[in-house]
Amino acid sequence: MKTVIVGIGGMTNGGKSTLATRLQQQIPNSCIVAQDTYFKDDSVVPVDSNGFKQYDDLDALHMDQMLDDINLWRRGPECFLKKRGLEPMQVSQPGSDVFVLIVEGFLIFNYRPLNCLYDKKYFIEIPYDICKTRRSTRVYSPPDLPGYFDGYVWPMYLKNRKEMEAMVSDIGEVFFHYDMKFTLTLYIFTVIILKSTYIAVFLDGLQDKDQLLDSVHKDVLKTIEGRKGKVALLFEFSQTFLGGFFSKIITILCLFVSFSEK
Fold it and tell me: Membrane-spanning residues where (predicted)?
């Protein structure tokens, strides 16, 4: 079974849900898992010294349940779609045999167990003043307290973004400690075989919505279309450039992936 997982993260009121919904409408055999649906009951979310509820923290979310649901999709995306009332496409068109999961949320790149699952990562940004204005027009339950944005939401966004960037840096550092052939092998295994990407594409949330959708849609389609020939490409690369022990490792991995995708 061929699958692609797309992560759409970013700041509050940046346009994550809008982009995810519109993208899902254009991609066959796709569905959305939204992080906002995994909040814990309000009664168990802690309050800080200023009286602000600590919603913008991983501890306020059932991340274990979210991960379980994503793994459930990975084990059987067709069954997962049907349970959500979505029928898999039966028509023959490019990419129609590939199932796509769109994971959307404000902390989806801060949870390490999820970070290794994404094929594509997009992070939407908007300026502070626009974000604050948009937030003020939204109705939340419970509603934001006076001073909540400046006293909690924005500082937590900066903190969480810094942690996300540090997490990406920590993962990337491994590539600089070994010789070139090992680095190439490790890169192929993590980025292509395990289908994980550590670098997020940062998007301008003020860009025209249609243009933003078009650019992301085209980028995701390239990943979908490339899913079929990826194993063959890996095999050819390993035979041409690596050779010896590393080539054998890649060959075994290619055979394993080919078997698991059938």
Answer: 184-203, 241-259
The pair of structure tokens assigned to 123 is: 């992070």
How far CA 243 is from CA of 8, 174, 190, 249, 256, in Å, comes to 38, 22, 19, 10, 19
- Catalytic residue flag (residue 36): yes
With tokens 């003043």, the residue in question is 129
In DSSP notation, 140-183 reads -SSPPPTTHIIIIIHHHHHHHHHHHHHHHHHHHGGGGSS-HHHH
H/E stretch holding 64 reads: helix 63-75
What are the distances in angstroms from CA 262 to CA 2, 87, 99, 111? 8, 21, 13, 30
- How far is C-alpha 9 from the chain's CA centre? 7
Token pair 């989806």 in the structure block, residue = 108
In the numeric block, the tokens 């604050």 are attached to 132
**Is 0.85 topped by the overall pTM?**
no
The pLDDT assigned to 246 comes to 55
pLDDT 10s digits, 171-182: 444 333 444 444
